[in-house]
Structure prediction request, 319 residues.
Amino acid sequence: MRVALAGLGDIGLGAHLPALRRHPSVRLVRLVDPDAGRREAAAAQGIPVGADVDPGEVDGVVLATPPWVTPELVVRYARAGLFVLAEKPVATSVEAAGVYGQLSAEERGRVQVGLTYRHDPALQQLATWISDGTLGTPVLVRAHIYDEPYDPADVEHADRIIATLAHGTPVVHEGAHLFDWLSHLLGGQPESVDDAWSRMTRPGLPAANLTGARLSYPGGHQALVEFGWLTSALPRCELTFLGDRGLATLDGFTFELRLRTAAEDREIRFPGDRMTRCFDLQVQRFVDLYDGACKAGVPSLDDGIAALRTAQLVAGRAL
Prediction:
């Protein structure tokens, strides 16, 4: 599969590029970025570098691009006949995602969304514990998603995250992952956003950097969620799933699992580190889509838009 990688920032060069290189059925033919400085820095990778993708020289494109430019690129490349793996979130708002309505069913089917950690075996294990009654039902989920600490000495990082805040609170960006996981684990999209809140920890930020909400899911499941960026110290990033019979805890960075019930107390660690494991599985799904082993992207464009819709509902309720 001939692939171009568009977007040469941290996630593009640090995660997508190594995963694409590791896969034996992928041939990277071009690295793409509109920024000349990034193109110059990427030239050392030994792969041709350009400012745009030529649809005639590739079968697929991986978009490690900001969500405010991703929709236009997805539509352009999918309509050109390419397979597209697009980083989450798929847009900055449901309204901005309206451009995806230009795609036919066939074109939408060639789009896979980079909700990368959905592929992790830890999520599959959690799904089993919830569905087979190991934890009891319903479950109460507590999700604390805290990332991007504020370090005044790292000006580049602070400026980049503040610029991202200008396009939405952390729930829009981090919620893309979490709300996809919860819908996957709890049997569907949330039935309601019951309440929400937001806080700005210091003046001058373009949006609140802390957000939280309570959501109801099918089957009586409930989720209490929090998202936060840009504080000098961060709470532990983890998810807990509590039912009448047991408690499961997912470490938000390693995806190590702990299960505690009346009968046992055990920990599960999966081989390798979470990022390598999940990005490799994601590339395999992309190759399967190209080869026809998958009939549609997993996660799909519809999955990405659904997660965005939930995040937007929370953000709107928190105002």
About this structure: The radius of gyration is 20 Å. The longest helix spans residues 274-291. The chain has two domains: 2-116+277-299, 118-270+307-318. The mean pLDDT is 96.
